[in-house]
Design goal:
2 helices; two-stranded parallel sheet; Pectate Lyase C-like; little secondary structure; about 110 residues
Length: about 110
Amino acid sequence: MSQTDASKSKFRDTYFSKGYLRDSNFDGADFSNAIVDRATFKGSSLKGAVFANAVLTGTSFENADVEGADFSDAYMGDFDIRSLCRNPTLKGENPTTGIDTRVSAGCGAK
């Protein structure tokens, strides 16, 4: 799914394993309750995406734009959370849920 426009797509309850989701547009996509295992969103835009209650094991958001994304109750390993918290675009508020992006990812407010 590299270089794909999947903006506003509904991926609720889906399963991605070893997904190569690079350089794509997932703005406003809903990954609620999804399992995204060992996937990479490197260079993708995830503005306003919802990952509520998702399992994000081994998933990379390196160089991804996650502004306004909601990670509420998402499960991520410690390494993945630390990496996500260093992402400079981890800011804003999700336009659908109204949740603060940094707080939802477990990074605390800046």
